[in-house]
Predict the 3D structure of the following.
Amino acid sequence: MSKERNDEREFAAFIGIDWADGEHEICVKSSEGGAVEHLQVKQTPEALSEWALGLSARFGGRKIAVAVEQRKGPLIYALMNYEWLVIYPVNPKSLSSFRDVFSVSGAKNDPTDAELALEMLCSHRNKLRAWEPESEQTRLLGMLTCERRQVVDEVTRLTNRLGSTLKEYYPQALDLFGDLDSRMAMDFLTTWPTINDLKRARPATIEKFYQQHGVRNKELIKQRLETIRAAIPLTRDRAVVTALMMKMMTTVAQLRVLIKAIAEFDDEIQKLFQEHPDQDLFKSFPSAGPALAPRLASAFGTDRERWHSAAEIQTFTGIAPVTQSSGKSRIVKKRLACPRFLRQTFMEYAAQSVKKSRWARCYYKAMRAKGVKHHAALRALAYKWIRIMYKCWKERVHYSEETYQAALMRSGSPLVSRLVSD
């Protein structure tokens, strides 16, 4: 939201909140003056509702500005129910720096974070951005894609754990099926949890198992059967084998649940994305498949007034670098204070776009040829993609690789020579 739109609001009161799991410390200051009021409100729906409704009655339903060191979570979800509360999320790093200015002793509660949040709100509101929720559809899409990613990360953690466990007592298994998170791998390990169980099985039974799981290459099956026939246990220590086998079985059971959950997330996300007004727009970008297109759509949202320039998105998502200058010293480094999932979304999209977009591939190669490291090159590419996406999103036009390459040629971009030779 622009500063002008912020300044247009007239607030009846200003509130700073130091949130906690159980009870929130709250400071209230009326715009008409008077002493700052201190109170505590429990983190329960009933207590928060009573407090918010009491504020509305006290200030005649007028707008009230609320500063809180949180952008999401139970407190934000509760406060967004009350239209008279205008929420200003405060970056924890900013509040920490503000605390260092006023707290000579360095103690966190001297003064309280609620007082500091209130002071920031009253004195520096023009530097803060009022939080305005997107449509329910967009917020749901964003939350689903974020939660899905966390489940995917958990699957990665568990597959690493599974691989490490198998290396300790059953390393042959790693060469006898596909990916560790595949259905075949989990069924294989559940059926034959140790090398001795596997060696006791009839070759015809194992061959049938492979065929039932889509393996049709007879030579590959023959090689695997030979590997099983020649295999010997890594260890015969019953204590080691039994303990690690149980660990393996527990991990496999967890993976089954999580992989099923990912499929359910995917179904829900696709159903929701099919109803999204910008689905075709974001599908038009190279490599924006079923996983990335919904993430990009939720990152931009549907409110065309939410972002006023591509630079706002580049900065907010952490893709734009931070430049620190002092005298003759100038340092450019990665922005740390940002929503990490959004930064991850654009970084992952940039990495995937190299596979299908000629200019993106050429740009990435050019950056690497200059000695730029992999992740820095991807951030630079993501920076360019955000500018392109913003223009398409703002004007509601689909992306065209041919149109963009033609624009590069008209502008005499250094990429043109690489495009011709690619």
Remarks:
- The first helix runs from residue 3 to 7.
- Residues 1-8 have pLDDT under 50 and may be disordered.
- The chain has 19 helices and seven strands.
- The domain at 140-271 is CATH 1.10.287 (Helix Hairpins).
